[in-house]
Amino acid sequence: xxxxxxxxxxxxxxxxxxxxxGKYLVTKRADWExxxxxxxxxxxxxxxxxxxxxxxxxxxAGQWYNVLExxxxxxxxxxxxxxxxxxxYLTSLTFIRPDGIPTLVISLFADYESGEVILSKDMTDFKWxxxxxxxxxxxxxxxYEEIEILDRHLKGEKIKTWERKS
Length: 166
What we know:
Elements: E1 11-20, E2 23-29, E3 40-41, E4 44-46, H1 67-80, E5 83-96, E6 102-114, E7 123-129, H2 131-134, H3 143-154
Parallel strand pairs: 1-6
Antiparallel strand pairs: 1-2, 1-4, 2-3, 2-7, 5-6
């Protein structure tokens, strides 16, 4: 059991399932990563104040809208070199990292807009895969289920939130 680091605030992370020609982009994390080393996942990363602080606030009270969308675009570009569009909410989850920091992950999906995949140093491989093909990869827990939820949605089914398996 991982010990909770009660002195730390939550990390806020956005992940993005990118859709291109009916396939989904998965990337492999470097072996030196603290959380989920060597596992396959989707692009994403932590919210940083630079995602909004240097921009003009959207309200007179100094608040910013669409911060998750900005984070998603930044992280996808940094990790894969791709541009995305039409970002939408899929689901969310929390977990405690191996270093004890609680983490909130907001899972999004977006359409591929442009670019060729050029991986950052944090990623070692990538594949564009179908729902059936992604089963072959050593994914971080929950990634397959999120892709499955999205796949059903794209086929016209209503998106259901995460359902605990009995």
